[in-house]
Amino acid sequence: MRNDDPRAVERVEDLRFLRGRGTFVDDLPSSGLSHAVLVRSQIAHGIIRGIDVAEARALPGVHAVLVAADFGENIPVLPLRLAPIAGVERFLQPPIARDKVRYVGEVLAIVLAESRAIAEDAADLVVADIDTLPAIVDTAGAERGDVILHEHVLENGKATNIATRYTVGKGDVVAAFAAADYVRKETFHSHRMTASPLETRGLVARWEDGVRLTLQGTAKVPHTARKFLAKMLDVRVDAIEMVELDNGGGFGVRGELHPEDFLIPAAARVAGRPVKWIEDRREHLMSANHSREIDCEVEIACRRDGTILGIRSKIRANMGAYIRPNGGVVPAKAAQFLLGPYRIGNAEIEVAFALSNKTPMGTFRGPGRFEAGFFRERIIEIAAHDLGIDPVEMRRRNLVTLAEMPYVLGKLVPYEGEAVFDTGDFPAAFERAVDEIGYEKLKERNGRLIDGRYHGVAATACVENSGPGPRENARMRLTAKGIIEIHIGSSSMGQGLETIFSQIASDALGLPIEAFEVFHGSTTHLAEGMGTYASRAVVMGGSTVLVTAKKLEAELLAFASEIGVNSPELSPEMLVHLAGEAVARGRKLDVEGAFENSTPTYSSGAHAAYVAVDPKTGHVEVLDYVAVEDVGRAINPALVHGQAIGGLVQGLGGAFLDHLVYDAEGQLLTASFADYLLPTASDFPNVRAVTLEDHPSPSNPLGAKGAGEGPIVNVAGTIGNAIAVALRPLGVRIVEMPFSPQRVFAAIAEAKNSAG
Asked: Which domains does the chain carry?
């Protein structure tokens, strides 16, 4: 990023944060509220015989203690938002347990009290009588049906833990493998983790006369959540107002419909009081969406020269106890992106969703792509070494080229059409990463013991889709103060949307960014909004701002002409004048706009890493890491760079540290930051990012591609390969994450034992 790039303006939202003037959900006034604490199951699997709440209800200061029966006979389930694959609808989650618990953290009761402290004391007095059943936590056991979670769901007359099973592919896999000079099969494992935003989730629910709900603290997809909640609560959609506040990060977890999103407003209605709930960190690690736990058996077929002829694979996802609103995206996208940016004409991928006694799965930044990057890049690296080909050279021979664009990837997801890479020079981005890391010099150190540590360098290529439609909505209006308000359906997760959208409007109207004020996410001023996910905020939301700005410009200039002002362009002074005249004449200068597009765009890039591994401890030091990504067009290069560095570090945390560990009884052993490790500022200081703008997207007027998730998608594959190359002289197999010192040391010990 050039320091003198005029587009790299400072974030306008940061001023209020630095002054302590942000408004987060826990900043909302607490007077007159009931504070909610959720009583959660401490047993992973069992039959509920009864829940005694009498002592808890009798505690002074307690307003109510609610169990499933208090919400009526027909408690709704959390509906699907994404990945509507046949079969998964049988395993949707009720927000509160009635007859059976299926994971530690499932809600049994809700305590409402004058203060959080009283509510916590009362929660300790709730006694749940649960007959414990055997738990199943491993994916293979779940698939075998060693323990059945949902006895009432039958398939061919037999109960099953498999929510769905399907096969996707393209070409002739049988012929490809028959013609291959080389075939190799390996099984890889991506471990369970979760997003850990700085701020945990929270909600404040207020009812007006029991018929109108204001829910503060929503995020990500508030308009969609409102539609779902309206049906679950049996009210009109326009009877619910979802208010997005400042929030401390999302990464795919915050804003998806969780049990609490129904329970808090439902409890407020039953109790006849406004209710506030703030999630603590243990709750978050225990019950917010988990992600990434996938086993993948992958087999590759190649010619002797390294040309990849085909891939066949079996993907098994550990979905937890239920299918949550977007959980199916994770294994589905792992399958779709298993082929990556490579020219692989033949593929067959079987996908299965297995249910276990763990917290249900949802999305986490780069869902499926992070996992697929590990599986794909490891098998390519293994094949290259087996064939005696430089792994970088093997990738060069198989990358889709610019001349082949648009490139049809194929229909590899049941609920989507064919995926088509729209544009991008994959080899050019790959060469940039190879050059930046200094691969040609560093590869001479591969597998060498230098000062007591083994060194390794690796480079990988990646592609990521972004900007899904079908549309986004915006409203722009000139206020009496001469400021243009922008109301947008996209939500902010801290990525700087107020700055970005102001910049887009500024460029469109020729006005300074100070002329705009951005309001995002809330349902208050927009009837419809699609929200923020899959790196769509700039692609769709930004394009909507551009379209709407042009509509407003036409109206402003028409009004100027109407009142006798002849000016070739807008200015802050003119806005103030027009605002005054509009007020005097009772005229509203207010327009709505939308941008519609159902064709996703694809950002592409490459990663390279250089590591040193201590064989005595298993510790891996990242000596250098570089990520290159072509984002089409960077509206604000400084913010894109921040996203890239943040994504890299989060990916490195996922590869080395983040790990949700369960015991055989389904107890979560890593329910605090004492055990669930996250990267700190000193863990990965040597990371670099290069942003390219060489191939703008043809699918939107900005030419933008997503930049929020691309930086994370190939981290595990790149680091895994670098470690494997470093330890190759020892015969170490790198087939599972995380690459913690304990696991790396164990892999070294296993290799030594195998060697005798």
From this structure: 25-133+195-287 (3.90.1170.50), 422-466+600-754 (3.30.365.10), 468-596 (3.30.365.10)
